[in-house]
UniProtKB/TrEMBL annotation:
Residues 152-244 form the 3-hydroxyacyl-CoA dehydrogenase C-terminal domain. InterPro entries: 3HC_DH_C (IPR006108), 6-PGluconate_DH-like_C_sf (IPR008927), 6PGD_dom2 (IPR013328). This is 3-hydroxybutyryl-CoA dehydrogenase. The lineage of its organism: Bacteria, Pseudomonadati, Bacteroidota, Sphingobacteriia, Sphingobacteriales. GO terms for molecular function: oxidoreductase activity, acting on the CH-OH group of donors, NAD or NADP as acceptor. One of its GO terms (biological process) is fatty acid metabolic process. Gene3D superfamilies: N-(1-d-carboxylethyl)-l-norvaline Dehydrogenase, domain 2 (1.10.1040.10), NAD(P)-binding Rossmann-like Domain (3.40.50.720). Pfam families: 3HCDH (PF00725).
């Protein structure tokens, strides 16, 4: 069972999340090293965190290159989104657990830990306890090898695409609806606590009528595909769903980091947990 309070750590990857997580571990004065390329290593680490693009073979490449650097009591954590943990585990020999953070890692308590039946007993529980006690995260555990965060965000994005594609709302209107409604209660209640607050009967009635009308599309709209193919990939290209100017990306990265710290303070202030009914 993994239960080391001060493990030797390695963060691997070239993403913003990888860099930010490494910075957080350094700020906490933990024993951590960083690599941005999948190369064999001579040292041994108790926990290796790998952050890659959402591509199965890339994840397997990183895991296979780093598996010899795992200590006898250690394992590898890899980010899981569209690619399921079971798919990764079927192609590698190392013990792999799914772990997701959100940006900025240093300002957010979010941590999703994903397991399957293949994982060794105690590894996930030990990681969960270590993250709460040492990283001050608010982790949750997902079984079955999928990312709950990815599924919920994908469902919301699919419906947003559908509403714009069918002409019910503009991109800006969708953002206003999310920001000015759910944006006010989700940070401190989540989904289910808010249902209890507002009354579950209303949700039972509304969802019964609304569910058949929701999108079940398996593809993104053509206009979105064309936008991406034309190089309009967001703030980095100065154009995406909105138009931007030079310096906007850096400005918004600064804003997001500051806002995340402020909203986390409010979440902690008003946080209330109950036993499930």
């Amino acid at each position: 069972m993994y239960n080391d309070e001060n493990p030797r750590l390695l963060v691997a990857g070239s993403s913003v999340i990888a860099r930010d997580f490494y910075d957080e571990l350094r700020q906490d004065q933990l024993d951590v090293e960083f690599v941005d390329a999948p190369l064999p290593l001579d040292s041994a680490y108790d926990l290796i965190f790998v952050f890659t693009e959402d591509e199965l073979m890339e994840k397997c490449l990183w895991v296979n290159k780093l598996e010899d650097a795992v200590s006898a009591k250690g394992f590898i954590c890899v980010n899981v989104d569209g690619v399921g943990l079971s798919e990764i585990q079927e192609k590698v020999n190392a013990e792999v657990v799914g772990v997701n953070f959100c940006y900025p890692v240093t300002a957010s308590p979010f941590m999703e830990i994903i397991e399957t039946e293949r994982n060794q007993a105690g590894h996930v529980e030990g990681l969960f306890n270590w993250a709460k006690q040492r990283l001050n995260k608010d982790p949750y555990i997902v079984k079955g090898g999928i990312s709950v965060r990815a599924y919920m965000l994908a469902a919301m994005a699919r419906e947003a695409f559908y509403l714009v594609d069918k002409g019910y709302a503009s991109v800006e209107s969708i953002d206003r609806a999310c920001r000015n409604d759910a944006g006010y209660y989700l940070p401190f209640t989540g989904n289910y606590l808010y249902m209890d607050l507002m009354g579950t009967v209303a949700y039972a009635l509304v969802m019964k009528d609304l569910n058949p009308e929701l999108s079940n599309s398996q593809d993104v709209p053509d206009w979105f595909e064309r936008m991406v193919q034309n190089g309009k990939i967001g703030m980095k290209s100065l154009s995406g769903l909105y138009k931007y100017k030079e310096g906007d990306l850096e400005k918004w990265e600064f804003i997001v980091r500051g806002f995340s710290k402020e909203i986390n303070t409010l979440i902690i202030k008003y946080k209330k947990e109950y036993a499930e009914g």
